[in-house]
Amino acid sequence: MQRQIIQTTSIWHDGFNLPTYSPLTTDLRIAVAVVGAGIAGLSTAYQLAKRGIQVAVFDDGPIGGGDTGNTTAHLTGMLDKGYAETEYLRGTDGARLTAESHLAAIDMIERIVRDEAIACDFARMDGYLFLAPGGELRTLTEERDAAQRAGLNDVALLSEGVTLGNVRLSPALRFPHQAHFHPLKYLAGLCHGIERMGGQIFCGTHITRVNAEAIVTLETTDGPVIRADSVVLATHMPIDDTLGYSLRIFPALTYVIGLHLPTGSLPNFLAFDTADPYHYVRIQAAEDHDVLIVGGEDHKTGQADDMDARYQRLAQWARTQFPLAGEVLYRWSGQVANSFDGLALMGPDLVSPHVYVITGQTGIGMTHSTIGAMIIADQIVGIPNPWAELYAPGRATGHGLGEVVSEGLNVLSQYTDLLKGGDVASATEIPAGSGAVVGWGPMKVATYRDDQGRLHHCSALCTHLGCIVAWNDSAKTWDCPCHGSRFDSYGTVINGPAPSDLLPAEE
Fold this sequence. Notes:
- With 507 residues, this protein is α+β, with helices and mostly antiparallel strands.
- The protein contains 8 helices and 26 strands.
- The chain has helices at 39-50, 82-115, 137-149, 183-196, 307-321, 365-381, 388-391, 401-414; strands at residues 28-35, 55-58, 74-75, 123-130, 156-158, 162-164, 167-169, 172-180, 200-202, 207-211, 216-220, 225-233, 249-261, 270-273, 280-285, 290-300, 328-339, 345-348, 355-359, 434-440, 443-449, 455-459, 470-472, 477-479, 486-488, 493-495.
- Helix 1 runs parallel beside helix 4, helix 2 (82-115) packs across helix 3 and helix 2 crosses helix 6.
- GO terms for molecular function: 2 iron, 2 sulfur cluster binding; metal ion binding; monooxygenase activity; oxidoreductase activity, acting on paired donors, with incorporation or reduction of molecular oxygen.
């Protein structure tokens, strides 16, 4: 039997074409400019257009070209930090509002799917939090009690384990009424809705500067200037980092595989486990089989070089838990923006009240982004929102201060790379299709050898705050270990907070 080729892009990009849009070519005056055409930006634009606001969306890449296209699209109220820790960090009322907001986000997505007739495989199902091997049942008991105090009274402890199809799994908490969807099909539906309501979308438009005055001015690489009453930065990591969001957002890379599964051998479900880092699982139907989607093996961006081993561990874990899982059909990675308390930072900037941000969506970015869209749309039209204070970007760190300090020390330690030599002694050691940091005297140079053997050189200093970037051989990117900026093989910025491409190397 001929072995199938593993796809190295996400399952969502396989066989699905998103709508395309032209760049902005002239100056534009608009009520609200939204920067970012992933789920955060498009959801916000949709909510604003629904409220009758003149809105335009801008992205330097295609629709869904960022981390929305790399998600596993769990629509869930199960939290990255869990309800017990969220209750400690944000109090009982904070945990209750968190639960309320995520369930409302799932309901909102379902309503939009219905109203816009979006064929995006939306379905409701149970979600499970499984006990990892060696874990104590008390962990689940405490989490159930905290979830119920947060208002999730239907969360149940299944202490004898869970049976899915013919698979017997460990004890778990069951969270009913969760959901999943195809994220890119959903984005396509949002685009059509935005345009139908009079909104505009521009791709291939790179915003280089945000000047936040009474009228917000956005400058672009190609010259056109955008003037808006308000701007929403929905770029995963804000492109305007003057308030230091990068000091409170901690990026991590996460890895995903899709394995062949016989059709119908497992029911639809969502799952996380209590491992650290945790695993997460869902099913996606394909034409003549199902795909078991499994993620995990997270690490700080730019601080690991064993990507292949991480994919292998995921496959081993998946086949141990689900014996019917077959060969790996897909594998990809994405970036997660974690916050100090597990809740996203969404709302108006403290210094620039006409600038709004959506960032720090953690591992449940689909619901966090939808919550942010609802909050910001309400705030722009002057409607009080019950979750605005919970997610306010300028909120106090509180009990999350320890994590801020720990992450800050980790960032400082990365600057010692400035004193070290390169990854290799000479560019001659770099194979085709790979990259490495090379020392040119006191300079550090990010050197990539393309598949034809040609060398491409850039400065290895991240254009955000000058950390030395690291080569990611799996994604073929340059990743900043300090604040998570990412650049393609040739040095073009693909993730902020870096505002621009890697600089040319000077011999």
